[in-house]
Write a structure and sequence with these properties.
The chain is mainly α and about 120 residues long.
């Protein structure tokens, strides 16, 4: 994680003497980067411990996850879309429709050009 942040920082300073800047960046942000890393590790360890406890108790997590997903899917299907959600959905459909219309117009123009060139050359 620290290496990735160093690489990003170095890429931002292309053409500059970046060694000193990277060292300065590390000295200023090392504690914060280390804290973030420790938090991520603790979260992963906690999740692994929870998984181990569930497995020891005999819970099948795949079945539970599938049930949760099925329930959320059913809730989504039952609930009608709100006004804004409907507007967003229409806007997305229109944007896809515009692309198709533009492609059709380009194809028609291409066909017309080919026909015109053929009639002019005849």
């Amino acid at each position: 994680r620290i290496q990735l942040t160093m690489i990003k920082e170095a890429q931002q300073m292309v053409g500059e003497p970046c060694v000193f800047a990277i060292m300065e960046y590390l000295s200023q942000n090392l504690l914060e980067l280390q804290r973030d890393f420790v938090r991520e590790q603790r979260a992963k360890e906690f999740e692994a411990e929870q998984q181990r406890v569930r497995n020891m108790a005999g819970h099948d997590t795949k079945i539970i996850e599938q049930a949760i997903e099925a329930q959320s899917d059913a809730d989504d299907q039952k609930r009608p879309l709100g006004r804004r959600q409907k507007q967003k959905q229409r806007a997305v459909e229109k944007s896809f429709g515009r692309q198709e219309e533009e492609e059709m117009m380009r194809e028609q123009q291409r066909v017309k050009r080919i026909q015109r060139i053929q009639t002019e050359s005849s």
